[in-house]
């Protein structure tokens, strides 16, 4: 009985050892960049960044204007009024400084909110293609040093997402003098 059990375990091991493991790879950055949603998100982020920049510029202009007025008129202010105006300038200066950091955080949050669904859609398409094509593992191309071109699944995933590749133009011929 032990020999039969041992033979069964060995046979099972032999079958799993001979099973083919299909491995593929993809450049996720290239895939995401080719998605129409990415272009729309990039345009929206650019517009958002422009708005944040304009608000910063407005705050900076307000600070410069009030600082100029303070410098010009401070000799006519009473000591208490001068102290109040100085505190207002300091508070406005701190607001400008904090706005820079806050706007960077707001931009990053907006970028994450826009890009996360696009990444998820790409990942789901990759998983679907891997399952349909029988791939056991899919790696990101950035992590691989050597790979066969036949196992790049980006074409399959783009097809699954309905993305048509732009025609690649041939390089212009070099004229010899």
Automatic annotation (TrEMBL):
Could you tell me which InterPro entries the record lists for this protein?
Answer: Chaperone_Skp, Skp_dom_sf
* Top-rank taxon: Bacteria
What transmembrane ranges does the database entry give? none
Signal peptide start and end residues: 1-19
Query: Keywords for this entry?
Result: Signal
Q: Does the keyword Disulfide bond apply?
A: no
Please verify whether the record's keywords include Plastid.
Answer: no
Chain segments annotated as coiled-coil in the UniProt record: none
Give a single Pfam family match: OmpH
PANTHER family referenced in this protein's UniProt entry, alphabetically: CHAPERONE PROTEIN SKP
Write out the similarity annotation: Belongs to the Skp family.
Name of the protein in question? OmpH family outer membrane protein
Annotated organism of origin? Ferruginibacter yonginensis
List the lineage, top down. Bacteria, Pseudomonadati, Bacteroidota, Chitinophagia, Chitinophagales
């Amino acid at each position: 009985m032990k020999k039969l059990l041992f033979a069964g375990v060995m046979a099972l091991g032999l079958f799993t050892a001979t099973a083919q493991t299909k491995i593929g790879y993809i450049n996720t950055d290239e895939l995401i960049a080719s998605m129409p949603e990415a272009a729309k998100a990039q345009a929206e982020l650019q517009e958002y960044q422009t708005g944040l920049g304009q608000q910063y510029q407005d705050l900076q202009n307000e600070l410069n204007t009030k600082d100029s007025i303070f410098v010009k008129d401070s000799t006519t202010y009473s000591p208490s009024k001068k102290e109040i105006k100085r505190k207002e300038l300091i508070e406005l200066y701190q607001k400008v400084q904090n706005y820079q950091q806050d706007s960077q955080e707001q931009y990053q949050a907006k970028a994450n909110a826009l890009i996360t669904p696009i990444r998820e859609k790409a990942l789901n398409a990759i998983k679907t293609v891997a399952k349909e094509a029988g791939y056991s593992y899919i790696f990101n191309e950035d992590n691989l040093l050597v790979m066969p071109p036949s196992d790049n699944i980006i074409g399959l995933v783009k097809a699954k997402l309905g993305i048509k590749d732009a025609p690649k133009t041939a390089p212009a011929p070099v004229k010899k003098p």
